[in-house]
Amino acid sequence: MTIPPVLCYHKVERRQELGVTRISPGRFARQIERLAKAGWKAIGLSEVIACANGQRRAAPNELAITFDDGYRGLREHAFPVLEAAGFRATCFVISDYAGRLNRWDVAYGGRRFAHLAWRDMRAWQGRGVDFASHTATHPRLTRVSELGVFEELDRSRRAIAGALGSEPLAVSYPFGAAGEREERLAREAGYAAGFGIARGWSGSVMSIARTPVYLWAPMMPVVGALRVPERVAGLVANRCAIGTTLLRGAT
Description:
Layout: E1 6-9, E2 11-12, E3 22-23, H1 25-37, E4 41-43, H2 45-52, E5 62-69, H3 74-77, H4 79-85, E6 89-93, H5 118-124, E7 129-133, H6 146-164, E8 170-172, H7 180-188, E9 193-195, E10 211-212, H8 227-240, H9 242-250
Parallel strand pairs: 1-5, 1-10, 2-3, 4-5, 5-6, 6-7, 8-9
């Protein structure tokens, strides 16, 4: 079984912040244009899952584009760019924060960002964007009780299904923090697949690997000539995200 390269974006925003997850709209557009010009095709969520299950073989020019957190800026700065390129994408949303500010996160630099509302998601359903779960409140699941993890996963799945009219196929684990327990609970909560970040793929459909695209990413993110140092930098940055968990716990 093989999976295509899976890119993971977060914010695509004009507003600057102190974090590393924000990509400017202009840079994002240039990255997508460069990928399309090089012959890459972006596939949807069900196709990625089929590859991970061994039911489909990924073509050499296929990749997948995902977004964690579901920020509102995507509706103006990312989704239209992808639609114009004929690229599909998956957006993992924090269900309790749909239409709200990101108060689950530490406001580095004092800035808050709004999340997509349910009406925004409905507007992009059927236009190349799949919506799935990033849990209900974005906790580091490995630090939550077994019951708490299941409730996070189950509540998010039910909220998305109720608001969008279809069951989310997958969950993206916040911070990429998940082990055998979290993967098992995700399956028990009704998800067909789980997505990690900045780590290798073990072959499990409940732990599909992704590479984060941060502010230093080149114009050919993840699949270009600089993919190896880019992945190493992404791994280091993702490890540093433990600081967010610690700071939240202190407030």
